[in-house]
C-alpha cells in the first residue's frame, strides 16, 4: 500500500489507474490518424499484447524459471513469447486493415510493421521487470506492516496480561512463607510457579535470553506438569556443553516440551517418557525431544503448535535452521538445530 497525500492506494488500485491512463493515451494517439472504430481496435489489440507480455513475464516466467539451471530455458521461452505476440499483432493488423478497413492504393509495409511491433514488445518486456520489482516491493511492505501490526497486538496483549505483576509476586511470596511453615513441598511448588510467572513478565518480552534461564524455566514447568500425571514420568533431561553465555530467543524450546504434555502423555499409561537433550556444539545448538506416540492425539501433535514454531524459526533464522519431526516405532521425535 502506497500513501499519496491522504489516500491509501493498494497495488491493485494502482494497476487499474495505470492501465486506464495508458489505454486513454493510446486511444487518443491513434485517434489523431484513424477513425474511432479503427482506433478502438488498435487500442484493444495493443493493450491485450501488453498485458500478455508484462503479466506473463512478471507473474509466471520470471518467478518460476529465472533460477540456476533454468535460465537458458527462461530466455528461450521469452524469445518465443515475443515472437508469437509480434507475429500475432502484425498479422491481426494486416488482416483487419485488408478486410474491414481497406484503403485504395495503399498497402501496409509488412517489414516496417514487424520491426515496429518487435521493438515495442521488447520495451514492454523490459518494463515487466520494473513491474515485477514493484510487486516485490509492495509484498515486502505489506509483510512489514503485517508484522508491525502483529507485534503491536502482542505488546498490547502482554500489557493487558501484566496487571499489577508486583502485587502478584508479593502475594505469592507471602503465600510461600506461610506454606513453608506448614508444607515445604507446597512452598517449593509455589516458588516454581512464581519463577515461571516472573519469566513471562521479565524475560519473555526480550529479544534474547540466556539459555540457562530458558532451561531453568523449562525445568520448573516440567516439575509443575508432573503433578498432573497419575503415574511417575520417566524423565531424561540432559544439557551438554557450555551454555552459560549462550543466548536464544525466549520460548524457543518451550513449545516442544509443552507439546509433549499436551499431546504426548497418556495418563492411563505407566511408562510415559520425556527425553529432552540440549547440546551446545561449536557454532550451533542442538535440541532433541522424544515421547511416546499417543495414537488418538497423533494428528493434533503434528499440527498447529509446531507449525507456528516453524514459522517463527523461519522469521528468526530464515533457511539456516533445521527442524525435523519423525515417528519411529512408538516414538514421536523432534530434532532442532539452530546457529549461534
From TrEMBL:
Tagged with keyword Membrane: yes
Q: Name one Pfam family in it.
A: His_kinase
**Keyword set includes tRNA processing:** no
Residue ranges crossing the lipid bilayer per the database entry = 14-31, 38-60, 72-92, 113-135
Output this protein's name. Answer: Signal transduction histidine kinase internal region domain-containing protein
Name the domain of life.
Bacteria
User: Which intervals hold domain Signal transduction histidine kinase internal region?
Assistant: 154-231
| GO MF term (any one) | phosphorelay sensor kinase activity
**Keywords from the named record:** Membrane, Transmembrane, Transmembrane helix
Q: Which GO terms describe its cellular component?
A: membrane
Q: Provide the taxonomic classification.
A: Bacteria, Pseudomonadati, Bacteroidota, Sphingobacteriia, Sphingobacteriales
Amino acid at each position: 500500500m502506497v500513501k499519496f497525500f491522504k489516500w491509501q492506494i493498494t497495488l491493485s488500485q494502482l494497476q487499474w489507474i495505470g492501465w486506464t491512463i495508458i489505454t486513454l493515451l493510446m486511444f487518443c494517439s491513434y485517434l489523431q490518424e484513424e477513425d474511432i472504430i479503427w482506433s478502438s481496435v488498435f487500442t484493444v489489440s495493443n493493450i491485450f499484447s501488453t498485458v500478455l507480455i508484462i503479466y506473463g513475464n512478471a507473474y509466471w516466467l520470471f518467478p518460476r524459471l529465472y533460477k540456476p539451471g533454468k535460465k537458458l530455458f527462461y530466455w528461450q521461452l521469452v524469445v518465443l513469447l515475443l515472437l508469437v505476440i509480434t507475429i500475432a499483432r502484425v498479422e491481426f493488423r494486416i488482416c483487419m486493415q485488408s478486410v474491414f478497413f481497406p484503403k485504395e492504393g495503399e498497402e501496409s509495409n509488412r517489414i516496417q510493421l514487424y520491426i515496429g511491433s518487435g521493438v515495442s514488445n521488447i520495451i514492454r518486456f523490459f518494463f515487466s521487470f520494473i513491474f515485477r520489482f514493484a510487486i516485490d516491493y509492495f509484498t515486502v511492505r505489506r509483510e512489514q506492516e503485517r508484522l508491525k501490526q502483529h507485534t503491536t497486538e502482542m505488546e498490547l496483549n502482554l500489557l493487558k496480561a501484566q496487571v499489577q505483576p508486583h502485587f502478584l509476586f508479593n502475594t505469592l511470596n507471602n503465600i510461600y512463607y506461610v506454606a513453608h511453615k506448614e508444607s515445604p513441598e507446597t512452598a517449593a511448588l509455589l516458588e516454581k510457579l512464581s519463577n515461571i510467572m516472573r519469566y513471562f513478565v521479565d524475560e519473555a518480552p526480550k529479544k534474547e535470553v540466556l539459555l540457562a534461564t530458558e532451561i531453568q524455566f523449562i525445568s520448573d514447568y516440567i516439575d509443575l506438569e508432573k503433578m498432573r500425571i497419575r503415574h511417575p514420568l520417566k524423565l531424561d533431561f540432559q544439557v551438554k556443553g557450555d551454555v552459560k553465555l549462550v543466548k536464544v530467543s525466549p520460548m524457543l524450546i518451550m513449545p516442544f516440551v509443552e507439546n509433549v504434555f499436551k499431546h504426548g502423555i497418556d495418563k492411563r499409561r505407566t511408562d510415559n517418557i520425556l527425553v529432552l537433550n540440549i547440546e551446545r556444539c561449536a557454532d550451533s545448538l542442538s535440541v532433541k525431544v522424544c515421547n511416546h506416540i499417543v495414537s488418538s492425539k497423533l494428528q493434533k501433535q503434528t499440527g498447529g503448535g509446531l507449525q507456528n514454531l516453524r514459522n517463527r524459526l523461519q522469521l528468526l533464522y530464515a533457511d539456516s535452521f533445521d527442524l525435523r519431526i519423525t515417528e519411529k516405532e512408538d516414538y514421536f521425535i523432534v530434532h532442532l538445530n539452530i546457529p549461534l
